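Page header: ASSEMBLY MODEL / two components / 1302 residues total.
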Amino acid sequence: MCASGKYNSRGPALIPRMKIKHRIYYITLFSVVLLGLVATGMFQFWPHSIESTADWTLDKRSIHDAPLIRLPVSSPIPERGDLSCRMHTCFDVYRCGYNPKNRIKVYIYPLQRFADELGVPISSTGLSREYNDLLSAISDSDFYTDDVTRACLFIPSIDVLNQNSLRIRETAQALAMLPRWDKGMNHLLFNMLPGGPPDYNTALDVPRDRALLAGGGFSTWTYRQGYDISIPVYSPLSADVELPERQPGPRRYFILSSQTAIHREYRAELERLKEENGEALLLLDKCSNLSQGAASARKRCYKGQVYDYPQILQESSFCVVLRGARLGQATLSDVLQAGCVPVILADSYILPFSEVLDWKRASVVIPEEKLSEMYTILKSIPHRQVEEMQRQARWFWDAYFSSMKAVGLTTLQIINDRIYPYAARTYEQWNNPPVVKWSSVNSPLFLPLIPPRAPGFTAVVLTYDRVESLFRVITEISKVPSLAKLLVVTPRKKFKCPECTAIDGLSLDQTHMVERSECINKFASVFGTMPLKVVEHRADPVLYKDDFPEKLKSFPNIGSL
Amino acid sequence: MQAKKRYLILLSAGASLILLFCFGGIQVPLSRRGPGRRDDHSLTGYHPGARWRRLQGYLKVFSTWEKDHDFHEDISPRQKRDSNSGLFTGRRCRMESCFNFSLCERNGFKVYVYPQQKGEKLSESYQNILSSIEGSRFHTPDPAKACLFVLSLDTLDRDQLSPQYVHNLKAKIQSLPLWNEGRNHIIFNLYSGTWPDYTEDLGFDIGFAMLAKASISTENFRPNFDVSVPLFSKDHPRTGGERGFLKHNTIPPYRKYMLVFKGKRYLTGIGSDTRNALYHVHNSEDVVLLTTCKHGKDWQKHKDVRCDKDNIEYDKYDYREMLYNSTFCLVPRGRRLGSFRFLEALQAACVPVMLSNGWELPFSEIINWNTAAVIGDERLLLQIPSTVRSIHQDKILSLRQQTQFLWEAYFNSLEKIVLTTLEIIQDRVLLHASRSSLMWNSLPGGLFTLPQYSTNLGDFPFYYAKLGTKPYPKFTAIIHMVTPLVSQSQPVMKLLVAVAKSQYCAQVIVLWNSDKPLPAKHRWPVTSAPISVIEGESKVINSRFLPYNTIPTDAVLSLDEDTVLSTTEVDFAFTVWQSFPDRIVGYPARSHFWDSNKERWGYTSKWTNDYSMVLTGAAIYHKYYHYLYTTYLPASLRTMVDQMSNCEDILMNFLVSSVTKLPPVKVTQKKQYKETMMGQSSRASRWADPDHFAQRQTCMNKFANWFGTMPLIHSQMRMDPVLFKDQVSILRKKYRDIERL
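Prediction written out in full:
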């Protein structure tokens, strides 16, 4: 470095005169530039490379290594959520822009820990396992972008799934500190347990400006239709317990109530129902002899008899999902997983993903006031429908409830559908379980139209090298009044059976039949099913072959061949 | 040599500069990514390009099991519910807080219309709304039985500058004894507010009443409480209504224009922005967006530079021509959010492209508009052409067909708009017995799919293909008997045996509508399928179409006692029906025609090359039509049929064709079974009666009048067994009896 510096300082003066020194001069120049490059490179990248290696090794890192941010007391607090917010007023659609894939880009803020000036964290749990799962799933999806400038939606890494673990004011301050917060525009918060005692608000109490809220337990009064997204309350049992899918059909019990925190008034009402209808009802409660904790979550009791939860849910046709302190209940998820039809008694509750899911085909909603009539109402539902609902329930769980990933990606897809409505998923895509998707028929021409004669038809004639028979066909068909156009298609292949004149000739050919049978099998295997249907009827003109003057018939010559 | 060196120097300097760039050594302000000044309070560890990584190791779960433990001490949920009704009123009204459900429990969903007061003038549209309600099955003249109340004060036009504006509405409403602060009332409104701001205020206190309002904004719309109705013109027909414009599908589905608009441009005031910008997108080829400033008294005063040029271009095109020849039609907001254009585009099968931010689309509670319209964003006007061009032609085909379905199902007459509004509210009241979204958004639509019959999709004849299921593979025969059973050789005995012998027969029901007492049990023939007898209570002809609970199958074979049928014929007809479960499949057919001399519909039983009705004396159809016949049709028509003891089959054909928009299906019958062979007994006398025929003509016209249109459709095809009358051995034919004489 020093030596080259020395040459360098002398260099310019020597250029014109000293030819021998040219070479040395150039070498020096190059080495200076090179060294300069290395130096700048080192200078520029040193701190960054520390960051990026940290990024890549995050896997081995615990949450405690995330940078800690101390919130000043005077840090600004966002405004409370604006109830009149809608996509066209509170969402900046320009950030999403037009893109050929019709897909929104989602950015996730890097993880930080927030604490107040005294060092007390804003949340008692910090990043929860579920929120970590959710964010990871999003970052693995094709919604994700790590380029903040291209993002249309921003997701904070501040976990607000459970309001109980949050310090409201400080959480709000932390949100406002996010570098792209901008009054919460295009920010999405996930919250499953909103409100707190005593009155349990139905939406997250953390002031959040214009941020979108994916909330579990919205009521019709807090849900901003077309803006917020109603999501399920995730049941942690989903990850631990595997319930194999059961065939729809009648179950041992008709109605099952498995919730443990039912208000005494409602429990009394359920007891009364049980008295009236006996064995058809199973009324479970928590087991008094078990201590609190994970183990007790897996057991339910009735008069000293212990049942495994959630397995017992599979033994009932209908399962009660009553409101608790909150409208959203994790039980709903368990019930769906068991393929039990949820009977939802939670007035004004906005069902999860109700914007796209047709809950009428998967659940029964009964006003709380009608709890006493529940049995009669459910008895009036036809068996076939109960079976369809059982199937739908399980399908909803599989597709939209089963994991935090499912919840997160469904939420994003709903927002995506709003931003690109012309590319939105259809009702069938959202609501039809795979078995129906395979067997159902949705004709692209579904409107019953009887087209007028006026445009006529186009004849497409496939011809080989048999000009004579082609001309015969053309002469005949051109007599038809409604013929609009005639198209002759000539493949380069020779007709297989030149000596055959009629179709019959071909059908007598055994190898031909074998070939065609093979085709059918091949096609059926590609389609995964046999789409052809057999019928025994044929459409003929009304007076076909009737004992009636031929000249009075519209189509007199049919069948004369 | 010198020059060479200079080049070399230049080159090396350039190269090193590029290298420096590449490595990011030099920071050029332009390439600087990320937010500008906000970065200043960027926090430690934050940098814009950071990628989210999953964290490993132990994390707490978000919720614990010891929750809600203090809930038991909480206030009673009943009290909490009651407090809601006091808390959420006015703009926060919901069914739970502002509607009294108990009124609907006693008598079902009944609607009361206030009697018209003397001297109170009603607009024609409002008059039509009221008469549609009064003619519907929901109407009750007794306010004590009502669940929903409709004012007889015209609230449609609340624009103070309008001549239709009703003054002193507030005082008039307050004086109504049944008003009850508007609870369980519905108020219809098309226009509210006036120039320049066009607010959505009606100018009087609606209290707890629901609004059925056009041009309602999402901001003012109370979800599941108000109903957004379409804006319709004064000439919108009361019943019937015009068919959609689409007569046949074209593939590829593109029309002459891609996107069109022709309308006013506002020089001042609300709603100007979008229309002012339309000229940016106009290309006068396939995107034709025309505006005119020439409206209102003093347009010259406000006119801007573009006005004259725009006006010239505007006059070059015809509105109708563009409407019918465009794939997409732009529907931007006007002064108010909604416009007539919306329904016009829908009818014209021109897919509406909505540019009306914040408009709660008509019947949004039940209609999935993404299937029939493109919901654009006013802010992204410039992207609209590329957006519509990116829509795949399959999607266009489906959007276009859906516009036609929705137009005919819910919008083409005032009656349908009103009935849809009432049905939506009924669905809310009957929570667990309400329609699923599929019922509303697929053929034949919610007005023909009554959830009181069943909420199970599989119980209706319309959804088998969609669900990938099939109807129950058996039928129930219902034989309508009016003559006493005197001899064992009566044709009905033969019929009973033949029908019960069918492999698809699950049950035979004899509907005993004779005045004579029921014959003893042993007099009925012994058959493999069980025979049960229902004694008609009222002995009226309509009782053959009652939705009997004892029908165990989806299919019903309806028979007259003098019908002559063989087992083979029944078997074949049933296999045909399985392919057409939503239509009437039967034997003798009839036709209708327009008698231009008498200017009325005519009825013919002559042998013709086409038919539009199949007689229900021998026909298979879905059980659901029994329910629809009994509940959907008005009492007036059914009474008429009962009094004449005639026309019930015509009415059934009208009903089914108006549901399916398709003709019935005729199957081939044995040659011996001709019109003259319709038995020798009662029916024969009925057929011979010239009055009988005249009655049927009258019926046709009465029915067409109620439907508002002629729903019957002609068909020219008959279903025959595949080898029917073909030159092959009869032994190879499965239904050979049909050919045998």
